[in-house]
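Lecture 7 notes: from sequence to structure.

We start with a single chain of 317 residues. Read the sequence below before looking at the structure.
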Amino acid sequence: MDPLDFRLNNAAGEGDRMNNNAQFPRIGFKETLQKMKEYVNARKKPEGQNRGIGTACGLWFGGGGACGANVNVTGDGTVTLVVGSCDITGTRTSLAQIVAEEFSISLDKVAVVTGDTDIAPFSSPSSGSRITRQMSTAVYLACQDAKNQLILQAASKLGVKPNEVQFVNGQIQVVGMPEKFVLLKDLARDAIGWGGKGKGPIIGRGAVNSSQSAPMFAVQMADVEVDKETGKVKVLSYAAAQDVGFAINPALIEGQIHGAVGQGIGRALMEEYKFQDGIMQNPNLLDYRMPTALDLPFKDVLLVKSRAILSLSVCVE
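Now the structure, written as tokens:
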């Protein structure tokens, strides 16, 4: 039986029980398998001796933990985001994208400050599966806090109700009346005006603790050739299909997957601690071989976006 068909017939879906008896939320395992099946079927069959294709599936439950974020709207129309998480695989860019979209400003008007958690808002450890997922929720909530302050201020200035204004290109304008607007920078300046006229700086705060679980699935394929005389394995091509939920920055996700595939190939074929009589024989990176660009094949990355952005009260997937 085709290995991918076998997995499709037995794949878990939303509502199925995990090994801890909890139910899976909405997941994209079947869609990821189907994506890989379409990819494999569109390829030419392997030709030549000692060549074959292998497929495997993986599951990771994702990272959780608590984190917070501050959003400061400044008098020049820019927005500064302050977080306590380190930048991993370009996570600052993804967080800045959220801020830019929420305030309807260009990305170059957003600055991200990553500080020590002694002074920046608290963040659980920075790791590959939790920063964008968890921190983006805190950032999103911080944006809503700051936007609500701006909306109340703008509505009062424009003489309308708060639900009658919207953010458009760095300004807040009356819905259906684009000629009536006020700039973000003017609102920020008014908020800190002399004489006690303003209510103080526009600072949004957001925080989140462990949120709804978002298990992520991967299906990967390796096209390999084995030299029968030497036993050397050559990876000719590779494909990775990944259920990523909602892809805020697809390019950064693809880059992370490329790196992970390189790590996997290295672990499977090259990297190994050699011991003799309790003494390591390859104690340095010259003798402990890790794959370079010359050892790695071309990799296709297939992103499956199984979840849209959820509601305010849950999190951004």
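The two ends are 35 Å apart (CA to CA). Keep this in mind for problem set 3.
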